[in-house]
């Protein structure tokens, strides 16, 4: 509703304007004549960056936004070009996308699927965004992905780690560069076996929502395959802030490893609580007690402080990687913002570049052309080694990093260290793997 | 058995936080008749007193390292806290280590000040206004306070460790003659003791001082006390400050249990209202009792044995209990008739 | 007209005009101008204005008339959404069955929750409704029912969506694959370009707007009916009512159920505009939001809740989108130094700081306009209108006529 109280005079004025409007020759904007939603008509193209700017994940959203801004700069030929110089595809020329200058609009997902869809819709309907990128939770990613499919724009997912995003909820218009629960598990299992042996009893605490369930399922399957036993899996409410009542029974359960399938604030608190109960200094079954956090992020590690020391987890990418792409990105990001990028920032940057590159190669912004260009696209030089965007489920396949909390961090960003880079071949799976079954991509939707 | 004892301890611990927040809320309800939705934010500010003191103590001088490089390949800046350069590395380090307990000293004046300013500057004008207006204005205030903290400290949780002397856990096992170990973190024991102390102090203050007597009289019948020529308003202002200090201290000591973040107040807000109402409006002992009771029930409900029978019970137990209590005891556990029933 | 008094007719006409001309009123700035940032006339937001308007009108029937402050009303909204999406999954995308079911199911839940909660009054009632809503939220968020049944009922935190594999009994290839009303798609939009301006006419929005007008009319009738009078009597002194030998419970329960049905209808509409139902729309923050909308607009007034709903949704959707880039483009006409200074100055209040602005506005409205936005509108109106003692507005009266705090 409008906030002005309509007066008689105002009403007459408005009707006059309306009348004049109807009398003028009219045409349908974008609809019909160009064949897809929000086809750019002028000299610019608009991308929509949908990240959490309020709520518990605001810091992560902010970092994603930094990376997205940087990507836009690089696409427009400003700055040092970052990973565009190391990217194996040379379609991007630094003159925007298909010669059109890149502009962007931002929205706040609030890490709620409703709010995320509302802000994505605002960017699509109001600002004419042709691609939506960003986000820091799987619930949001799945919700926005569905929306983009209906609206006929491309969705380049940000941080989303649930198997479902490219599993039972996959969509033709949606693409995920980030890794998933299955890959984490496949990468972690051998490292855990080496570090802690194959005769371990694991106790799982799992955040009680879709992402937590799929990750727990993946980790339990991978660790059981190498000989571990899963003693118990306790679901913890997402709204929990104090995990003491879930941690307290762990010691007397006979388990000697605690797996925390938590993310964000949940993970910071559950890990902090576990350390309070002094679990890492205990011995059970004659072995030193260990904690595993399957999905790490730099911000969580910073939030948990010293508590991460010695705890193993996995990541999609880390700024300490020494390949040319990563170095170029860290340099360009670090010089602009004075801090190393997080792995969610990296995935958003790469996704934006990949989208732009796909448009260039397809020669069109039409989502169906972009989908075709991205499907089964192989590339290198974006920080993860050779990567495949699989056409069957729109999931990227690449190396996975296994990380460990550093014992003696030398500065505030130096909280995690790379233990191992698990090669891509080890984390691959068939598109019809049971953990990913149930959904179908459907057909690409160009909208309008 | 040991599992139940452990959960009981957890319950006491959670209950202490609930009870301290609810105590302040009830004081404000009871004395001023104000529904204060900003009370959670006050708890949060308390926790950030810890963070702030830790930040102040670790203010550092920077020198460029000769050998080490930062992530961009520039010389690494090595930070030496001023406290360490003034008092020597060892004494300095232990001062920093004790930041959280020391923050109590910072928090008491800060929280009293915050309380006074809130009451004089804003709440005072809302005594005669409908509860709906009080809710709106204090909710607005809560958002503003929260956003200000977010602006300065960011949205990420900030690790605020307890002094290293309290790291680790105490084993009750041998003490109770059990075979198995029954370890409970030192700091949580400290938190419980601290809460008990504060609760005791508040009750003693209300029970044994003239000031407290007047306030209690004011809670029972404000008009009559006013007619006796006692300046009840000024005393109520002080009570508001005390209520803020109680919630603030609860926050200060809570910081090591869970890293403080800007929205932690909202996480506690709804729960603490439930606690206050279950305890009974206007009843201080009720608030404390309900706080511990709900804390313990919540902990017991998260036991695996119970969750296996009723999955998800730990998420809803507090609300189930609240409903049962409010239906069987119309005014909560110890509520008085006619308070906030309209 | 339509059995309404003159004032109410005027009010209804205002709402009808606002609703029908919203695409123009909300897009006052040319599409390419810097001010276009403040345009709110795009389909999704207009739909939200109408839907939350309905939600708030319904909430106000309960709170404004009886003074019973429900802190769990969002539960009914969520239940409505889930019911509608289930209809889409089972029957097909026509929105009519979904809307009908959402009203029925939410009425059922409102009857249940209302019957129990209304045994208490005041804050005890508020906490009971809050407790029920939080329970339902927890159940939906972790899909506790689905865990017993074995198939997702609420689909947890991801939200309930329609999949291609769903039965969709009445669905056929000829029908659209998105919510529609007998073939007319909810998202179909006709864009009218007038010079530099552009206006969106969205079918879904007009559907919501018609429902809103209907619901507003119904609310006026309830306000002015003997039933409404009885409810006001409950608000002013329930005890006295009871002493006269009158049982007030059937009246309050009836209005609680009606109010829940309004919420369910809003939820059903929400799912019809966007076929996904997430659990967080049932959380206490969502319940709190409708309380804030109503108080902000002016509790007990007819149009206030609609204004309050629009106000909050406008900030959530428009202010959150203003980023530093936009700020720089606004102030780009200034010299560099001043431009950066202005950007730094405004920066904390927009974009990721929109909560701060909202919080400040809550405080300002309640401090300076005790009767809510309606009172503000009255004040503005009064300065323009002739001084006419007789034309005392019923809305203004309602805004002023409120109970002081219980002592």
Automatic annotation (TrEMBL), chain A:
CDD domains, alphabetically? PBP1_SBP-like (cd19987)
The record ties this protein, via Gene3D superfamilies, to: 3.40.50.2300
Question: Is-annotated flag, keyword NADP?
Answer: no
Q: Indicate yes or no for the key word Signal.
A: yes
Provide the coiled-coil residue spans. none
Query: Which positions fall inside the Leucine-binding protein domain?
Result: 44-406
What single Pfam family name could you report for this chain, choosing any that match? Peripla_BP_6
Top-level division of the source organism's lineage:
Bacteria
Biological process (GO) annotations held by this record are: amino acid transport
Keyword list, A-Z = Amino-acid transport, Signal, Transport
Q: Which family does it belong to?
A: Belongs to the leucine-binding protein family.
Q: What is this protein called?
A: Amino acid/amide ABC transporter substrate-binding protein (HAAT family)
Organism listed in the record? Sulfitobacter mediterraneus
Lineage, broadest ranks: Bacteria, Pseudomonadati, Pseudomonadota, Alphaproteobacteria, Rhodobacterales
Automatic annotation (TrEMBL), chain B:
> GO cellular component terms?
plasma membrane
Report if keyword Calcium is assigned. no
Q: How does it sit in the membrane?
A: Multi-pass membrane protein
Q: Mind telling me which Pfam families this protein's record contains? A: BPD_transp_2
Q: What are the GO MF terms of this UniProt record?
A: transmembrane transporter activity
Its localization reads: Cell membrane
The Gene Ontology biological process annotation of the record reads: amino acid transport
> Keyword annotations for this protein?
Amino-acid transport, Cell membrane, Membrane, Transmembrane, Transmembrane helix, Transport
Query: What sections of the protein cross the membrane?
Result: 16-35, 95-114, 189-215, 236-257, 269-297, 309-327
Q: What family does the Swiss-Prot or TrEMBL record give for this protein?
A: Belongs to the binding-protein-dependent transport system permease family. LivHM subfamily.
Q: What is this protein called?
A: ABC transporter permease
UniProtKB/TrEMBL annotation, chain C:
Q: Does the keyword Transmembrane helix apply?
A: yes
What is this entry's stated membrane topology? Multi-pass membrane protein
What is the protein name stated in its UniProt record?
Amino acid/amide ABC transporter membrane protein 2 (HAAT family)
Which terms does the record give in the GO molecular function aspect? branched-chain amino acid transmembrane transporter activity
Q: Where is the composition biased (Basic and acidic residues)?
A: 385-398
Where do transmembrane segments lie in this chain? 12-29, 49-71, 91-116, 123-142, 203-223, 250-270, 290-315, 327-350, 356-377
This protein's UniProt keywords: Cell membrane, Membrane, Transmembrane, Transmembrane helix
* Region annotated Disordered, chain positions: 384-407
Q: Which domain of life is it from?
A: Bacteria
User: What Gene Ontology terms describe where this protein resides (cellular component)?
Assistant: plasma membrane
* Coiled-coil region(s): none
Cell compartments where the protein resides: Cell membrane
One of the Pfam families matching this protein, by short name: BPD_transp_2
What InterPro entries does its record include? ABC_transp_permease, LivM-like
Source lineage: Bacteria, Pseudomonadati, Pseudomonadota, Alphaproteobacteria, Rhodobacterales
Predominant subcellular localization, coarse grouping:
membrane
